[in-house]
Please model this.
Amino acid sequence: MTAIANHFSYWATLFIAIAGLYIVIARGNLVKKLVGLAIFQTSVYLLYIAPGKLIGGTAPIIADKFAVYSNPLPHVLILTAIVVGVATLALGLAIVVRIKEAYGTIEEDEILAQEQPALQQTADNKM
Amino acid sequence: MRSWRRSNLPFSKPPITRCNILISQNYPILHVVVPLIAAPLMVLLRHGGFAWLLAAVASWSSLAVSAALLAEVAGGGVISYAIGSWAPPWGIEYRIDSVNAFLLVLVSLIASVVVIYCRESVEAEVAPEQHYLFYTMYVLCLAGLLGIAATGDGFNLFVFLEISSLSSYVLIALGRDRRALVASYQYLIMGTIGATFIVIGVGLLFLMTGTLNLADMAARLREVTDTRPILAALAFLTVGISLKLALFPLHLWLPNAYAYAPSAVTAFLAATATKVSLYVLLRFYYSVFGESAVFIAHPTSDILLVLSLAAMFIASTVAIFQDNIKRLFAYSSVAQIGYITLGVSFDSLTGLTAAIVHLFNHALTKGAIFLLLGGIALRLGAVRFQDIGGIARVMPLTSFGIVLAGLSLIGVPGTVGFVSKWYLVLAAIESGAWWLALLIVLSSLLAVIYVWRFVEAAYFQVPSASVSRLREAPLSMLVPAWLMVAACLYFGLDASLTLSGASQAAAELLPGSR
Amino acid sequence: MRNYLVLRVIAKLMIMFMVLFALYVQFHGDFGPGGGFQAGVISAAAIVFYGIIFGLPAAREVVPDRLVEVMIAAGVLLYAGVGVAGLLLGGNYLDYFVLGADPVDGQHRGIFWIEMGVLITVAGVMLKIFYMFAGRGDGGGE
Model:
């Protein structure tokens, strides 16, 4: 029980990561896949942010009264990672919009079915 | 997590001497900054021709800077550059040694050659209003790749990885075929999972060491080497980087992405993107975790060996049955990456030299092939076997170039492919596995088959009506492509330059054997 | 949504404060939580809000597509330009210490322009994304 309680943030990270990856793998809808990907990336934010807080630590501004400071670096890193995540999601959705325009669907199996003639030649490459 | 320490504030004021505007001091950052500044300029000007000119200038100046850097570190030195003058363990450090200087030259060289080729190829394959967008993404991708290679900071590496990846997704999606969109989407999903794995690995290392600077990280890792988070970090990084470099079972994004991207993009990415990822793998294995933590404590060698062999045989076999020639050579790329990781798996100086020299050689070979195929795509509109019958009669230079580069893929003496295979075989024999040497030669036979399929179609079939109307590819595309072919032959006959660079890089990575 | 009087009046009132808040977040970023990224998103949100209530064409009139693209590029250029200014003044890339008479002054000046670049680019990118998706198909505008 304590193993769970002491590492709560890591269990949460793990759960979010696996849930996100599962969605990416199990869903055929291209938008849902992207949602799963975004959830998966969210787990990284938690992985970085949670240990950034030291209990009893203050903001990293030097003052005589304090000796323990929280590390501000993770927040900055994750702000960057969030930006990257947003950019990836936006680009992914933009590509999905164009796929929808080109194929008329955003279901993976229906797109594959439309490429059937080409698929015949490449089926053995899917390995 | 280490708490923020009070002493040693990272405050290092440089002496204000206004005269030291020595550009050469800033070489370690300039090759990234120049393309990075060129990109927004292109968006501001929105003019295709001007964007091309800027892209060319940016790539060439990156090449010049990289070459200067390589010359500077050739003696075994290390250049450290503190961004914003914040001293290294705190600030972002750019660290150039003989390993990444070699790679910087390779990437910027390929970019400089391909950019000449872009002019006519992009004209034909990309809609005119998207030209400036193409070149913007091209220089961003270049800046990202150079940044990955130059940086000495774990998180900065991830950021540049994403810059180069996001721009390459866009570049691939610019392909004419609608399947390019699906390929780009697939690559986006796989690539993002890979990048996220990498950032998880870096995060775990950061939590255990409290630093993101790779050199500092390596020093602090010694205290915590045997802990479970470090093992997890190693696993996450290995899988994540393997996804980006298309190591065998994780290569599924590669064939479609290469096959449907615009020709210039295929050539550029095939020659650089996977190679830079391989550099990242080497950097983490040897410079961060250390050789003993990766290869001796865990069976990494065996895993790499099995996957490399699988890549060499399965991907080559699949390549033989391809109908689209670009897809064929894309699968061949997966197989060739197998040769590179095979060299890494030996964990010896010879093996590492072989891996690095093959990294360079394969970039030249594949770059040449995809550039020449782009010429066929331009004239014919497709690169499938049923369409190209007898094409050697109308496009003799293009076809002959592909054959020469194909010989290099096989590893015929006199080409660069032979040099790499020779060193691979040497490394195999050195490690006592003569059967591996046999397998390397055997897998080359598979390359003979798929290259022969092209020869048979191009030279021994009667040209159809549509083929016989074609002309040779334009000069602006032939010249860059043939430059690469010539480099394949030159470095095949006189390998001293590439080999000395590669062996020095290998010695840099393997400190014990220096 | 042109007919909803309450929405239109409230929106016009809100947008002022949104932009003002964005500016506060931007310039307070030196001393507290905030900065260019957050401010950029908030100010873009104001325009997006305007677009949702008054229609995409109206928003495009206020901030045309061309301007959005210029913003994206100009912000990045400003950011990179600060870095190059550091180079030219004899420091390293993105060196703020050399930008002012004394190092602390230089840091202030450097981060001010950097955050300005971030604000411009982020606002531009957010609007670009909004225009891109809202302008597609029949869902965009009125």
About this structure: Residues 5-134 of chain C form one domain. Chain C touches chain A at residues 37, 125, 129, 132-133, 136 (CB under 8 Å). Chain C has a mean pLDDT of 86.
